[in-house]
């Protein structure tokens, strides 16, 4: 009996629809990128048509309807070509991508609105003059910008050493000790408290110690310090725990005391992560509004003294410009949007700095 190895089919064109679309066998093909983009384009067109038919075009309705059509279409096509397993994967991917795009809509809308309205007052006067004597157009954020920078700087100088030292104690010295457990508990509690609670605590404390209703920059520093310390402790603690114990043991084997090992080995190894955590903590507190409303207050003039008179800040300045406009309402609203834009730029710059620190100052593992 002879078995022939010659092909039994003389045709060369694939008979399976999956092979024609991008695969080779029934239920085992792969959708080509052109087909996937074609399905997406068709879904966008159908979603646009449905949005117009259901009562008028809007970006939200168009995105939602297009996403629903795309999920159903890609699942159907993928099931016919690739099989149920790949079809389910594409279905889940489509759902996750849809929710991601829906989450981006308000963020993108916010950024576009801030850029459109916040650039109207971005001139030299806006950054160099205060609101002293201004009741209509004109004026600027010099006083609020100064207050924000001063309060943030002093808060950082107070909170960062406390947070780093507390984290060093928890990781290097406090294993199993009652004090370490107590510090961890209070850090967890402080991490979850609302920011207004920290502001009310600082305001009440200074009202009892100094005078009732006392508002100044130092009160805002106290409130923001309560919010910043737990963030620094948590981030520094995680970075210190990532340092390999082999480095510590090698240092101990050479006779180096523990405190010098922490200073010369552990901290330099974790410095990139610690600096990143500190930068993100600064970005977190610089935009706080609620605690500064009740602690630092509001003013219209430059105030370089943290211990006397209310000290204006950018978040509080924007809040009062919107909630308490004067006769020329549009001028107040424009100043508020511009102040918000400046604050967003500062926060974004701090986040970029944190990324750069983590990238360029991370320990080099290569030779």
Automatic annotation (TrEMBL):
Organism superkingdom: Bacteria
What positions does the domain ABC transmembrane type-1 occupy? 145-354
As for subcellular location, the record says: Cell membrane
Annotated Pfam families = BPD_transp_1
Membrane found in the keyword field: yes
Q: Which UniProt keywords apply?
A: Cell membrane, Membrane, Phosphate transport, Transmembrane, Transmembrane helix, Transport
Q: Keyword Cell membrane, does the record have it?
A: yes
Per the record, which residues fall in region Disordered?
1-20
Bilayer topology annotation: Multi-pass membrane protein
Q: A GO biological process this protein is involved in?
A: phosphate ion transmembrane transport
Q: Name one GO cellular component term.
A: plasma membrane
Q: Which PROSITE patterns match?
A: ABC_TM1 (PS50928)
Which InterPro entries does the record match to this protein? MetI-like, MetI-like_sf, Phosphate_PstA, Phosphate_transprt_permease
Q: Which residues cross the membrane?
A: 34-53, 59-78, 90-112, 149-171, 183-208, 214-233, 265-286, 336-357
GO terms of molecular function: phosphate transmembrane transporter activity
- Residue ranges with Polar residues bias: 1-12
Q: Which family does it belong to?
A: Belongs to the binding-protein-dependent transport system permease family. CysTW subfamily.
Purpose: Part of the binding-protein-dependent transport system for phosphate; probably responsible for the translocation of the substrate across the membrane.
Query: Sorted alphabetically, which NCBIfam families does this protein's record hold?
Result: 3a0107s02c
What is the designated name of this protein? Phosphate transport system permease protein PstA
Per the UniProt record, the source organism is Janibacter melonis
């Amino acid at each position: 009996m002879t078995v022939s190895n010659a092909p039994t089919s003389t045709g060369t064109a694939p008979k399976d629809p999956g092979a024609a679309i991008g695969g080779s066998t029934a239920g085992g093909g792969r959708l080509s990128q052109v087909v996937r983009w074609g399905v997406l384009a068709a879904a966008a067109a159908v979603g646009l048509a449905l949005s117009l038919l259901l009562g008028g075009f809007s970006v939200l309705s168009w995105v939602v309807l297009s996403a629903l059509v795309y999920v159903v279409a890609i699942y159907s096509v993928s099931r016919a070509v690739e099989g149920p397993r790949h079809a389910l994967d594409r279905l889940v991917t489509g759902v996750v991508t849809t929710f991601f795009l829906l989450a981006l809509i308000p963020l993108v809308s916010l950024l576009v609105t801030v850029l459109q309205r916040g650039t109207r007052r971005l001139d030299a006067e806006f950054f160099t003059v205060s609101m002293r004597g201004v009741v209509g157009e004109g004026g600027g954020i010099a006083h609020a910008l100064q207050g924000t920078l001063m309060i943030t700087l002093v808060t950082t100088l107070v909170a960062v050493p406390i947070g780093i030292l507390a984290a060093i104690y928890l990781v290097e010295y406090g294993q199993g000790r009652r004090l370490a457990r107590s510090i961890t508990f209070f850090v967890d509690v402080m991490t979850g408290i609302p920011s207004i609670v920290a502001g009310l605590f600082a305001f009440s404390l200074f009202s009892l110690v100094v005078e009732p209703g006392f508002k100044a920059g130092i009160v805002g520093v106290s409130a923001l310090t309560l919010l910043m310390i737990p963030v620094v402790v948590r981030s520094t603690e995680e970075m210190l725990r990532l340092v390999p114990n082999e480095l510590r043991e090698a240092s101990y084997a050479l006779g180096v005391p523990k405190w010098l090992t922490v200073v010369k080995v552990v901290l330099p190894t974790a410095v990139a992560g610690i600096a990143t955590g500190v930068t993100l903590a600064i970005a977190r507190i610089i935009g706080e509004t609620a605690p500064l409303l009740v602690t630092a207050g509001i003013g219209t003039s430059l105030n370089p003294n943290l211990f006397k008179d209310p000290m204006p800040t950018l978040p509080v300045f924007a809040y009062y410009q919107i909630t308490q406009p004067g006769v020329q309402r549009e001028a107040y609203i424009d100043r508020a949007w511009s102040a918000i834009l400046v604050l967003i730029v500062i926060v974004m710059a701090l986040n970029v700095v944190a990324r750069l620190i983590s990238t360029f100052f991370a320990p080099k593992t290569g030779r």
